[in-house]
């Protein structure tokens, strides 16, 4: 009740916002300078549809945009779709002859939506296993997960991006390249805990180092996948009698894991696998590092090919929930629209071409990945608002706006802005890194005017509370005053 009263209090203050621009800016600065978040570096730009400035703080300083990067990637995809076909190919399965035995190859083509879950209804790995079994094949050698459609980049291009952030990029993606381990305490204090994969993968080894703690102890279980190995290590402690813990983590090699799962599905359908599941990658080569048009390779025919979901569906997921893997795959597929090899460097070239058409100066932005996880990405508030104005003039703008989170309603804004000033009236992309937050998009002000805005909080001191309440309070002041 106390928290609800506080929330009501600040939006009532917002409704009584000052009339003059100078008073408004003073109130905004006061909100952003609260002692608890002192030291945070703020940037803000708000304009109306005609480009008149409503509020502006450090508009030309460069900020980490975090997942605001996805604004540029998803709009570049919409722009490419308007200019011609955009690659949206489904994964497939084929039979390959190997010195007298038949191998099964699972071919990844950059589809981010393939699933391998009991409730899967479309774009399902199980459908490919069904096709192999229905073909009459009863005995196979190796099961190969082939992601060579995209040159193998183990991590996003930044040496400061590490596992645990959904950055395992592969042309053969399965279940968003995540695994889940179900962990339970043992039967007595000091006894080993119990753990199993939610989806069976017999070729994966679980190294279970979880112990059972006292009934009143805190659950502190962690999981990691050892790079280059099919080993999952669990460690920590779970309280005796405590609840089962779901531990989600990134798959180290998605193509290898997809091969493991397909082999298991084939066995369940009566197909004998005499060989081993394995991955097949295409290492980065000179032609991939220096983007240039490449001739398409001649491909063998699939035994069966999945139909991926519509691109708009994937783009909506990418923006609404801020899906890092999907965003970076879109960046790589942008390269294909100009005949380049689908790599990060080539995708960045196409992305920067779109940004240049929007008229942004090169010094106002830098992007090194598609998701916004790179700490080297930069944008100025003025440039972001200018870009959003350009987007609004494009024929695909209305469709793109539907993919944005809505304040207090859905996506990454679903739990924020639960007040009459902002709820249902903000359509914007969030961004979050360790010490950076961002929000950019559009909002409907109290008068019904539409405002375009970008607000950034960088360099938040360690130990400081979240800056999101201050960010939302500042936006409410602006909305109420206009």
TrEMBL record:
Enzyme Commission number(s): 3.4.16.4, 3.4.21.-
Record bears the keyword Cell inner membrane: no
Coiled coil: none
Keyword entries, A-Z: Carboxypeptidase, Hydrolase, Protease, Signal
Matches recorded under InterPro entries: Beta-lactam/transpept-like, Peptidase_S13
Pfam families membership: Peptidase_S13
Transmembrane segments: none
Keyword Transcription: no
A single MF term (Gene Ontology): serine-type D-Ala-D-Ala carboxypeptidase activity
Listed GO biological process terms: peptidoglycan metabolic process; proteolysis
Superkingdom of source: Bacteria
Signal peptide: 1-21
Annotated NCBIfam families: PBP4 (TIGR00666)
Protein family per UniProt: Belongs to the peptidase S13 family.
Entry protein name: D-alanyl-D-alanine carboxypeptidase/D-alanyl-D-alanine-endopeptidase (Penicillin-binding protein 4)
Naturally occurring in which organism (per UniProt): Novosphingobium sediminicola
């Amino acid at each position: 009740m106390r928290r609800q009263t506080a929330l009501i209090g600040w939006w009532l203050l917002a409704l009584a916002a000052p009339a003059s621009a100078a008073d408004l800016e003073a109130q905004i600065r006061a909100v952003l300078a609260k002692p608890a978040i002192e030291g945070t570096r703020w940037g803000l730009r708000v304009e109306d549809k005609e480009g008149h400035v409503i509020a502006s703080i450090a508009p030309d300083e460069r900020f980490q945009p975090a997942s605001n990067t996805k604004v540029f990637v998803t709009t570049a995809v919409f722009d490419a779709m308007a200019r011609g076909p955009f690659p949206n190919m489904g994964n497939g399965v084929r039979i390959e002859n190997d010195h007298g035995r038949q191998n099964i190859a699972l071919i990844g083509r950059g589809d981010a939506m393939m699933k391998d879950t009991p409730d899967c209804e479309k774009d399902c790995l199980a459908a490919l296993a069904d096709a192999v079994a229905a073909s009459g094949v009863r005995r196979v050698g190796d099961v190969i997960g082939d992601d060579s459609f995209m040159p193998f980049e183990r991590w996003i291009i930044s040496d400061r991006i590490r596992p645990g952030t959904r950055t395992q990029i592969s042309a053969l993606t399965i279940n968003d390249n995540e695994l889940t381990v179900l962990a339970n305490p043992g039967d007595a204090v000091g006894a080993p805990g119990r753990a199993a994969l939610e989806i069976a993968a017999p070729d994966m080894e679980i190294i279970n180092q979880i112990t059972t703690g006292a009934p009143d102890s805190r659950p502190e279980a962690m999981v990691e996948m050892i790079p280059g190995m099919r080993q999952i290590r669990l460690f920590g402690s779970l309280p005796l009698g405590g609840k089962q813990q779901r531990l989600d983590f990134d798959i180290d090699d998605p193509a290898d894991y997809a091969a493991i799962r397909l082999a298991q599905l084939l066995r369940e359908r009566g197909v004998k696998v005499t060989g081993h599941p394995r991955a097949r990658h295409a290492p980065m080569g000179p032609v991939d590092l220096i983007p240039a048009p490449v001739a398409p390779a001649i491909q063998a025919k699939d035994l069966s090919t999945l139909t991926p979901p519509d691109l708009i569906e994937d783009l909506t997921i990418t923006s609404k929930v801020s899906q890092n893997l999907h965003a970076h795959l879109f960046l790589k597929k942008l390269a294909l629209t100009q005949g380049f090899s689908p790599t990060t460097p080539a995708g960045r070239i196409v992305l920067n071409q779109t940004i240049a058409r929007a008229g942004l100066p090169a010094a106002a932005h830098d992007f090194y990945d598609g998701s916004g996880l790179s700490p080297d990405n930069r944008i100025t508030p003025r440039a972001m608002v200018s870009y959003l104005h350009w987007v609004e003039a494009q024929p695909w703008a209305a469709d793109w706006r539907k993919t944005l989170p809505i304040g207090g309603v859905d996506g990454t804004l679903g739990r924020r802005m639960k007040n009459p000033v902002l709820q249902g009236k903000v359509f914007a992309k969030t961004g979050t890194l360790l010490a950076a937050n961002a929000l950019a998009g559009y909002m409907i002000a109290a008068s019904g005017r539409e405002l375009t805005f970008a607000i950034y909080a960088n360099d938040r001191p360690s130990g400081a509370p979240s800056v999101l309440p201050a960010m939302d309070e500042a936006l409410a002041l602006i909305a109420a005053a206009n």
